[in-house]
Design goal:
With 341 residues, the chain is mainly α. It has 14 helices and no strands. The chain has 2 domains: 1-200, no CATH class; 204-277, no CATH class. Helix 2 packs antiparallel against helix 4 (42-57) and helix 5 (66-84) packs antiparallel against helix 6. It is globular and about 70 Å long. The structure holds 2-acetamido-2-deoxy-beta-D-glucopyranose (2 copies). Residues 1-17 form the signal peptide. This is Saposin B-type domain-containing protein.
């Protein structure tokens, strides 16, 4: 009872300590997500979150960097608010307040980390150590994480950052800080997106998907949920890409039956219904999200669009190399994602 009271008081103190500006931000946030629009037009909610709420809330930063920060933060915000599900009504205020109160600090912490990461030199001695110390001793906010998943240890995350910056710097030793920011945000977002692949492959059964691509895929979607798509768009994604998978597997079968045993084992292609389908779906989804991010940029600054395009192209090439999940065992240090109390 006493403990509850203390929690309550702390809760009240936290709300009271919001500035006028932050309160206004929080109200707009709650209003935006309370609308039915979040289900029907998640992309539009995302766009308004970045432009109407995030953008005015961050200061002390070069104007041209705001779109990057707001665009990528927004993806995490949407992700977490979507996860609230039925607890939305009682939890939304805590998330709104937490976001509006801490957005500036989270961004500052992230930018300082990027500063450290961008100081990378090929002969740098204690690079990952510095990175680990920094992440360990700073905030890891849900909407602007330095380590986007609790499953990833700090050691693994810092190694991944090192790989990212090693390749960025080998490509361009004088990498600008502004570009380092874009690469880092895009890279962290990629870990969020990779989760869809894994979730899908974890639950998907090849034989069932092959037997009934569309219905089975829709069934999976009810568990996985691509946050920036509404239900119809998810169905569309399943339908189009289930057909694509069917065709590819059919072609593989045909080649095999035509050529019989004459194909060498290396030349053999196999049908992997789940992997093919999620591969196609992610391609389309990423395309949609990139388009949306670009719209955010256009809303702010046309100049930055090109940088993001280059950044995401660059990252796509690097993505194969940087496989976070394979190194999960590396360091056991962890820092949890910080959610509102
Ligand atoms: C987003 O903002 C635009 C322009 O202010 C408005 O017309 C639209 O209804 C908003 N969308 C949502 C989902 O709030
Ligand atoms: C790296 O760390 C070691 C010990 O922790 C220290 O002696 C050394 O000076 C550091 N090197 C650099 C380049 O900071």
């Amino acid at each position: 009872m006493k403990q509850q009271l203390i929690f309550l008081l702390v809760g009240v103190a936290k709300v009271l300590s919001l500035t006028q500006d932050q309160k206004a931000c929080s109200s707009r946030f709650i209003e935006l997500f309370s609308q039915e629009a979040f289900k029907i037009q998640p992309m539009s909610v995302y766009a308004n979150l970045t432009t109407d709420i995030c953008f005015p809330q961050i200061t002390n930063i070069q104007h041209s960097l705001k779109p990057t920060i707001c665009a990528y933060q927004g993806l995490f915000v949407i992700e977490y608010i979507d996860k609230l599900g039925v607890s939305f009504p009682e939890k939304i205020r805590a998330f709104a307040d937490d976001y509006c109160k801490n957005i500036q600090e989270a961004m500052n912490d992230k930018l300082q980390l990027i500063n450290i990461l961008n100081s990378y030199q090929p002969d740098y001695q204690n690079y990952t150590q510095k990175c680990e110390d920094y992440i360990f001793s700073h905030s890891n906010m849900w909407f602007d994480p330095t380590k986007p998943s609790d499953d990833i240890t700090i050691g693994v995350m810092c190694e991944a950052y090192q790989e990212l910056f090693t390749s960025l710097k080998s490509y361009n030793p004088a990498l600008k800080y502004e570009d380092a920011i874009i690469y880092t945000y895009a890279f962290i977002y990629q870990t969020l997106i990779d989760r869809y692949d894994m979730d899908f492959l974890n639950v998907c059964v090849d034989s069932q998907l092959q037997a009934n691509p569309e219905d089975y895929c829709n069934e999976l979607m009810s568990k996985i949920d691509f946050i920036l798509l509404n239900e119809d768009e998810e169905k569309q994604l399943c339908s189009v890409n289930g057909k694509k998978m069917k065709k590819r597997c059919h072609d593989i079968d045909r080649v095999e039956s035509e050529q019989g045993n004459n194909i060498s084992p290396e030349g053999h292609e196999y049908c992997f219904p789940c992997a093919f389908t999620i591969g196609y779906m992610m391609h389309d989804y990423n395309y949609g999200v990139e388009k949306q991010i670009k719209d955010v940029f256009i809303a702010f600054s046309k100049k930055a669009t090109g940088i993001l395009k280059d950044a995401s192209k660059e990252l796509q090439q690097k993505q194969d190399k940087i496989d976070l999940q394979k190194k999960l065992e590396k360091s056991q240090l962890t820092s949890q994602i910080q959610l509102p109390a």
